[in-house]
Amino acid sequence: MIRVGINGYGTIGKRVAEAIALQDDMKVVGVVKTRPNYEALSALKKGFDIYIPREKEKEFIDKGVGFKGFIEDLLEKIDIVIDATPGGVGAKYKSIYEKYGLKMIFQGGEKAAVADLSFNSFVNYEKALGARSVRVVSCNTTGLVRVLWVLSRINEIESVRAVIIRRGADPKEIDRGPINSLVLDPPSVPSHHALDVKTVLGDIDIETVAIASPTTLMHMHVLNVRMRNNVSKEEIIEAFSRTPRIILVDSSRTGIKSSSEVIELARDLGRKRYDVYENVIFKDTIYVKGREVIFVQAIHQEAIVTPENIDAIRALSLIEKDPWRSIEKTDKSLGILSGEIR
Ligand code: NAD
Asked: Which residues pair with residue 83 across a beta bridge?
C-alpha cells in the first residue's frame, strides 16, 4: 500500500485525495492545510488527517480546527507527495521533499524543470516508471496531449494550430475574472500552452492562441491539425471512440452544444462536483479535408488531471508497470467513460 501525502488541499488536491481513497493499492496518510477554513473542515469530515505549518498552530487551535501534526510529521510517514500548492510554490518545497527522500508529483503550474519528466499517462507512463519526480501537465495541456497522441497514432502530425477559449476562473475563485470581457491571454502568439505540449510530445509544430472568457465551467479548444498524409473522418472517429478518457458527443442527437450542457449532463449522471475527467469532443465538429483535421473539444479544468495523478503514483512507485492496466483501474474507480455518449 503506497502511502501518499497531499500538500495543497485546494481544487486539485482535494480531488486527487478523494480519488486516492477509492484505490486499493494506495492510501492518503494526510493532507496539508495552511488555513483553518471550510476546506479544512470538509477534509476532516471526509476522514483525512490534517497537517499544518508549525507557525499556524495557534490559528488552528483558536479556530477549533483539529490537526494531527505538522507538515514534517506527514512527510516522515509517506512514500510519495502530491504537491498541489499554487503554481510556483511546489518548487520552493522541492528541497524539503528531497530531504525526506520522497517521490514527488507536481502540477502544471510549476515550471517543467521542477521534475524529471512532464507526465501524461498515454504518452510517457513507461518513462516515469521508478522516476523520482514528475509534473502532471496542466488541464489545457492534458486535454491537447491526449487527442494529439491519438491522432499521431493514425498518421504523423505535420502541424497543430489551436485556439483555447479558457475559463476565466474556477467556481470558488471570487477574486478572478474576467466578468465582462474576452481577454487575450496573452496578447501574442503562441500562448504558453504550445510550449507546454512540447514538454510532453517533443518538438512538434504547434502554435496556440488563448482567450480568457467569463465562465467557470470548462475550457473549449478549437483544433486544426495538419497530418502528413490524407486521413478519413471515419478513422479519426474510430480512433477517438476506442481511446479511454475521450468521449464523443453527437450534438444533433443529444442537443448538447455548450459547456453548460456538458456540465448539466455530468450533474444528471451523478458525477461528484460535476467532474468531467474526459475530453469531450463534439462529434459533429470533426471535419476532415485531405490532410486537415478540425474539431472542437471541451475540457473540465478542475477534474481532467485527477486520473493522471493517480497513474503517476503507480508509475513512480512501480506498483503497476503497465500503463493501460493503471489507466483501466483508475478509470473504473472514477467511473470514467469512453466512446460515444448514447
Ligand atoms: P488552489 O488555490 O485551489 O489550491 C491550492 C491549495 O494550496 C490551497 O488550499 C492553498 O491554501 C494551499 N496553499 C497555498 N500555499 C501553500 C503552502 N505554502 N503550503 C501548502 N499549501 C499551500 O489551486 P489549484 O487550482 O488546486 O492549483 C494547484 C496546482 O494545480 C497549480 O499548479 C495549478 O496550476 C494546477 N492546476 C490547476 C487547475 C485548475 O484549473 N484549478 C487545473 C490543472 C492544474
From this structure: 7
Coil, helix or strand at residue 24: coil
Q: Is 196 a catalytic residue?
A: no
Q: Which of 170, 240, 155 is nearest to 12 (CA)?
A: 170
* Cβ–Cβ under 8 Å, residues 7 and 107: no
Answer yes or no: is the C-beta of 89 below 6 A from any ligand 1 atom: yes
Contact between residue 252 and residue 341 where contact means Cβ atoms under 8 Å apart? no
Shortest CA distance to 302 belongs to which of 256, 263, 339? 263
Binding site membership of 186 for ligand 1 (Cβ less than 6 Å): no
- Those residues of the chain that have pLDDT short of 70 are none
Q: pLDDT by residue (tens digit) across 18-58?
A: 999 999 999 999 999 999 999 999 999 999 999 999 999 99
**Predicted local distance difference test score (pLDDT) of residue 342:** 80
The CA 137 to ligand 1 mean position distance, Å, reads: 13
- First and final CA of the chain: distance in angstroms? 37
The beta strands (E) that lie in the chain are given as 2-7, 26-32, 50-52, 69-70, 80-83, 103-106, 117-119, 133-136, 157-167, 183-184, 206-213, 219-227, 246-249, 279-282, 287-289, 292-299, 339-340
The tens digit of pLDDT for each residue in 96-109 reads 999 999 999 999 99
The pLDDT value recorded for residue 247 is 98
Query: Which pLDDT belongs to residue 75?
Result: 98
Domains in the chain, start-ordered, CATH in brackets? 2-136+306-333 (3.40.50.720), 139-304 (3.30.360.10)
Catalytic residue among 137, 139, 197, 288: 139
pTM of the model: 0.97
